[in-house]
Design a protein that fits this description.
By secondary structure, the chain is an alpha/beta fold. The chain has five helices and seven strands. A five-stranded parallel β-sheet has the order 2-1-3-4-5, sandwiched between helices. Strands 6-7 form a two-stranded antiparallel ribbon. Helix 1 crosses helix 5. The longest helix is centred in the N-terminal third of the chain and has 20 residues. It is globular.
């Protein structure tokens, strides 16, 4: 199983990056925990953060051509290869960042999120509730199977050494990751 993480923050050492790193660890731990004792990890999972949304051009339908811009092609390819997606974002001015909006606009017509489980996590001082409320219907209109949103309140002091440290938030994320993986698992697995 392959899970792609997407950060709404372009800042490399953001709290959102720490949340995604923690989710990546949970994805691999949960998948390993689901494997039968003594068996090769038949349910192993990989987690990759797509780091190219800052390279995407501003969305313009006139530029949505074949072949697509290289950055758009890489974005679409990364999502098409995913069994599940995690979108983690801060909240800026009661919304989500413009770079994430452009990234999502590039896949509205191409359909990479159709029938894909998508975990939505917001993280900011205020929890990012408004960003989650704005993003949830976007994911749903693109026919993604929404998990969450999970909101992490007062995130900055909960991050140390590039990871989320709050046990309650980690428990909530672990439960969400378990649901995400179960939705992404092939039928009969």
């Amino acid at each position: 199983m392959h899970v792609v993480g997407v950060s709404g923050s372009l800042q490399s050492r953001s709290s959102t990056a720490a949340v995604l790193a923690s989710i990546g660890e949970l994805v691999t731990l949960r998948a390993d925990a689901e494997a039968p004792a003594g068996a090769a990890c038949a349910t192993s999972a990989t987690f990759e953060v797509f780091a190219g949304i800052e390279d995407l051009p501003h969305f313009n339908p006139d530029r949505d051509t074949e072949p697509p811009h290289d950055a758009v092609a890489a974005w679409r390819s990364a999502l098409a290869a995913a069994d599940a997606v995690v979108i983690a974002t801060p909240e800026y001015a009661h919304g989500y960042p413009g770079a994430l909006k452009d990234a999502l606009d590039w896949i509205v017509g191409s359909g990479e999120l159709i029938d894909t489980p998508v975990l939505l996590v917001t993280a900011s001082g205020s929890g990012g509730v408004r960003a989650g409320q704005a993003l949830a219907p976007v994911i749903e209109v693109m026919a993604g199977h929404l998990v969450g949103p999970i909101s992490i309140w007062g995130v900055s002091p909960k991050v140390a050494e590039g990871r989320l440290t709050d046990p309650d938030d980690l428990d909530a994320l672990a439960a969400a990751v378990q649901l995400l993986l179960s939705l992404a698992a092939p039928v009969g697995a």
